[in-house]
């Protein structure tokens, strides 16, 4: 029987007739502060699904293996079921968010080498920061798996930074999630959308991402639709 396996903050995950395949439903919902701030946002689900589909297809076209199979409706896609590795892998090209507040620096400082950070995926613990030796000690990953995940993260950064530049956006930072296939291979999972990255307009430095919601800067969906339109002009598959 087809059933829901996870009701997330931004997506629902459903089984399908094929045990190796999940159906993802993108929700019209935004959350911040680990779910403490939560709102219904019209058309957010279909906009994020469209953005993530475009970017995951671009990854596949450029040799990055992902869980993506196909988009099946406005707000739904099919993905390969993976065992999610409980780490949020963050790459920062410019200071922003927690990096800026934690270290007392202004937002928008460009790093000569991207900063790499990890958080443990745990809503109960508020996604605490974790380093490589801690993650290995906890049995979450091996060093070899971490090496693979960071190599893919760097490839993503090198691929997307010039792509977003072409679309007049700076890729400030982003978060990736990885999972393992039954054969143990690590692939990119979850989504890539303005929910889990920061994008600034190159000229105005206006936020084109979830900071619009986090900081109450205005309506979210028109901003995400602007990102989608800009990407549609530069991703020609
Ligand atoms: P979390 O804090 O765990 O990321 P969330 O509620 O913020 O949860 P959502 O995006 O709403 O996140 O939920 C999607 C869930 O599905 C996440 O837990 C994510 O790790 C998981 N997931 C993503 N892709 C896959 C996949 N291919 N196979 C299995 N699980 C997946
Ligand atoms: P970060 O600055 O650490 O946290 P916050 O967004 O709460 O200030 O986030 C860096 C980037 O990673 C940002 O684009 C948001 C994304 N991210 C997620 O999508 N989920 C997460 O659980 C975390 C910790 C970060």
TrEMBL record:
Q: Which domain of life does the protein's organism represent?
A: Bacteria
Q: What GO terms in the biological process aspect are recorded for it?
A: 'de novo' IMP biosynthetic process; cobalamin biosynthetic process
What family does this chain come from, according to its entry?
Belongs to the SAICAR synthetase family.
Q: What is the lineage of its organism?
A: Bacteria, Bacillati, Bacillota, Bacilli, Lactobacillales
Residue span(s) of domain SAICAR synthetase/ADE2 N-terminal: 5-230
Q: Which UniProt keywords apply?
A: ATP-binding, Ligase, Nucleotide-binding, Purine biosynthesis
> Reaction catalysed?
5-amino-1-(5-phospho-D-ribosyl)imidazole-4-carboxylate + L-aspartate + ATP = (2S)-2-[5-amino-1-(5-phospho-beta-D-ribosyl)imidazole-4-carboxamido]succinate + ADP + phosphate + 2 H(+)
Can you say what this protein is called? Phosphoribosylaminoimidazole-succinocarboxamide synthase
Q: What is its EC number?
A: 6.3.2.6
One Pfam annotation reads: SAICAR_synt
Q: According to the UniProt record, what class of enzyme is this?
A: ligase
Q: Which HAMAP family match?
A: SAICAR_synth
Query: One GO molecular-function annotation for this sequence?
Result: phosphoribosylaminoimidazolesuccinocarboxamide synthase activity
Describe which pathway this protein belongs to, using the record's wording.
Answer: Purine metabolism; IMP biosynthesis via de novo pathway; 5-amino-1-(5-phospho-D-ribosyl)imidazole-4-carboxamide from 5-amino-1-(5-phospho-D-ribosyl)imidazole-4-carboxylate: step 1/2
Instruction: Kindly give the PROSITE patterns that the UniProt entry links to this protein.
Output: SAICAR_SYNTHETASE_2
In terms of InterPro entries, this protein maps to: SAICAR_synt/ADE2_N, SAICAR_synt_PurC, SAICAR_synth, SAICAR_synthetase, SAICAR_synthetase_CS
